TrEMBL record:
Locations listed in the record: Cell envelope
Protein name as it appears in the record: Sugar ABC transporter substrate-binding protein
Native species: Streptomyces cellostaticus
Statement: the UniProt record of this protein carries the keyword Glycosyltransferase: no
Keywords carried by this UniProt record: Signal
Keyword set includes Ubl conjugation: no
An annotated GO cellular component: outer membrane-bounded periplasmic space
Classification via InterPro entries: Bact_Solute-Bind_Prot2, Peripla_BP_I, SBP_2_dom
């Protein structure tokens, strides 16, 4: 599979500088006007601060075409605009290649690194090299349990075990008895934690099904075959929004009555929640993950601020059902939820 390892830089133009002769000379009205001006500048793609133009690199384990990471990037880019940051993005779904991208960011002498730890053992040395070089690191999305041990400032994302437990509770409420948990990326510790979390709270039985997430036809045929072989499965849980619709197709072809539920949210999932095709989704707010990661690095560089107190900064889980999906329609359609 072709790897996408290019750096993507955002050209941020302009800077807004609001000055005041003295604090005493700044009225509340003037402060409000300054704040309004900063917001307007950010909306127009201009920096809302006049701090140094630092460079931050985000390196993720995303494969090509994964829409989830488009949402993460959207949040990160918006924060980068606001904070006057030169933002670089790269990704590779092979852990060793992802580690090399982290090494490349260190060699570029970036001012901060944001990295996912889906396969933490492969990233440990690269993160340590960044720390040794004096580059602050924030982990995002995956690797909450390893983040602190690796020396990261903070972890921003969803606790995958807790998210899985929330799914188990929701399946109980719906009276389900047997769930199929579809893992689309073998070796991803977060995916294992999700399915294990489901099994921890679900009163029924959970079976894991490993599929090749880079080949949707294979995913569909594997789920279809499983549903045909075991008609007692009454819930299918996918671990990513793009796989939910594929599972629905597999269910239809198999003649199964199982409910399809999923982790993560996008416009397609929201639409299928509203029309009843899907039962529920678990939102971890990827836009917030990207935005908060960039913003927190900026805060650390600017004011030595750190969030979390050594604990993950949680962005989920939030169970989204038919009613909630309708309320989020504007956001999913614009690609920020």
């Amino acid at each position: 599979m072709a790897r996408f390892r290019t750096w993507v830089g955002i050209a941020l133009t302009g800077a807004l500088s609001v000055t005041c002769l003295s604090l005493a000379g700044c009225s509340s009205t003037g402060g409000k006007r300054a704040e309004d001006a900063r917001k307007a500048a950010a909306a127009q793609g201009k920096a809302a601060v006049n701090t140094p133009r630092w460079t931050f690199a985000m390196i993720t384990h995303s494969g090509d075409g994964d829409t989830f990471w488009d949402i993460v990037q959207s949040g990160a880019k918006q924060a980068a605009v606001k904070d006057n940051i030169n933002f670089l993005y790269s990704h590779d779904d092979e852990a060793q290649q992802q580690a090399q991208l982290v090494d490349a960011a260190v060699d570029k002498k970036v001012d901060g690194i944001i990295v996912t730890l889906a396969k933490p053992d492969a990233l440990k040395a690269a993160v340590a090299r960044a720390e040794k070089a004096g580059i602050p690191v924030i982990t995002v999305n995956s690797g909450s349990e390893e983040s602190k041990a690796f020396g990261a400032l903070a972890h921003i994302g969803q606790d995958e075990t807790i998210a899985g437990e929330a799914v188990g509770d929701e399946l109980n409420k719906r009276g389900k008895k047997k769930a199929l948990c579809v893992l689309h990326e073998q070796g991803n510790v977060g995916h294992e934690q999700r399915c294990d979390g489901v099994a921890k709270t679900f009163h029924g039985t959970v079976q894991k099904l490993y599929v090749n997430g880079t080949n949707m036809p294979d995913v569909q045929s594997a789920v279809e075959a499983k549903l045909q072989a075991d008609t007692s499965v009454d819930a299918v849980v996918t671990l990513g929004a793009p796989y939910a619709d594929t599972a629905v197709k597999a269910k239809t072809d198999a003649g199964s009555k199982a409910e399809v539920d999923t982790f993560d949210l996008n416009a397609k999932v929201a639409a299928e929640l509203k029309d009843g095709t899907l039962g529920f989704a678990v939102d971890q707010q990827p836009y917030l993950q990207g935005y908060q990661a960039v913003d927190l690095l900026w805060l650390y560089k600017y004011n030595s601020d750190v969030l979390g107190g050594g604990k993950p900064v949680l962005t989920g889980p939030q169970i989204i059902t038919k009613d909630q999906a309708a309320a989020l329609a504007d956001y999913t359609e614009r690609g920020t939820r």
